[in-house]
Amino acid sequence: MAPKPSKAEKKVAYDAKLCQLLEEYSQILIVAADNVGSTQLQNIRRGLRGDSIVLMGKNTMMKRSIRIHTEKTGNKAYLNLIPLLQGNVGLIFTKGDLKEVSEEVAKYKVGAPARVGLVAPIDVVVPPGNTGLDPSQTSFFQVLNIPTKINKGTVEIVTPVELINKGDKVGSSEAALLAKLGIRPFSYGLVVVSVYDNGSVFSPEVLDMTEDDLVEKFAAGVSIVTSLALAISYPTLAAAPHMFINAYKNVLAIAVATEYSFPQADKVKEYLKVWNCFPR
């Protein structure tokens, strides 16, 4: 039986693996892995198998490997990853479409019960209706000030109740009640928190942008540049048509008000003569 590798050997192997992945892949999703179990992580790995690789590890080890690879290659773009390695995070190296990979990762969220002491990631609202619990269980509802009534021998919640607010810790009473009601209010999975693409780092919300969104933002940018160029009389490609039109309007106004004329003004003067012939 081969001896188990030492800690030093494991670190060397991890460094080699991460450096190899950094060399092979230019796109990386940084994902939060809070409350993600090993079975769930295995399912995600199987789902992404093909053009993506999930790598977990201690932040200190990942930062160390990135610095080593940066020193070896001289490519300082990798250093942009280091500030992102905060908390319980992992790396998904991919050659696929970033949006599609992100959506695939999101499919593997699983429901989870409200455990005591857990910080709620969302608001938890208990809906009204029959709970199926017998009247002896009303003490749970009374402790939490949940209005109930007995209907056909079971406890019925009268109105919706905001049981837990986002950011609050789950108490023992709330956890017990949700368990009795069979409510699993939370869902956990790998959550994309940042995207690394060829040295650039951006928010995952950028992946949700469509071509129409990009065109709209580009048009808004062009409009701003045009307005600024016109305000300071600075010629730009976007402002040039407006400048020519404004210049034509100014010269045309002079031609109409005086005897001076030019070919582009003659037709306008003719229209004005005809217009002036009509009684008012």
From TrEMBL:
Xref: InterPro entries: Ribosomal_protein_uL10, Ribosomal_uL10, Ribosomal_uL10-like_insert, Ribosomal_uL10-like_insert_sf, Ribosomal_uL10-like_sf, uL10_eukaryotes
Q: Which CDD domains match?
A: Ribosomal_P0_L10e
| Record domain Large ribosomal subunit protein uL10-like insertion: where | 114-183
A single GO BP annotation from the record?
ribosomal large subunit assembly
The keyword Ribosomal protein appears for this protein? yes
| Protein origin, superkingdom | Eukaryota
Q: Which UniProt keywords apply?
A: Ribonucleoprotein, Ribosomal protein
Q: Which Gene3D superfamilies match?
A: 3.30.70.1730, 3.90.105.20
One Pfam family here: Ribosomal_L10
GO function term, MF aspect, one: structural constituent of ribosome
Q: Name one GO cellular component term.
A: cytosolic large ribosomal subunit
Please report which protein family the annotation says this sequence is part of.
Belongs to the universal ribosomal protein uL10 family.
Q: How does it assemble?
A: P0 forms a pentameric complex by interaction with dimers of P1 and P2.
Record's function text: Ribosomal protein P0 is the functional equivalent of E.coli protein L10.
Name this polypeptide is given: 60S acidic ribosomal protein P0
Q: Which organism is it from?
A: Cephalotus follicularis
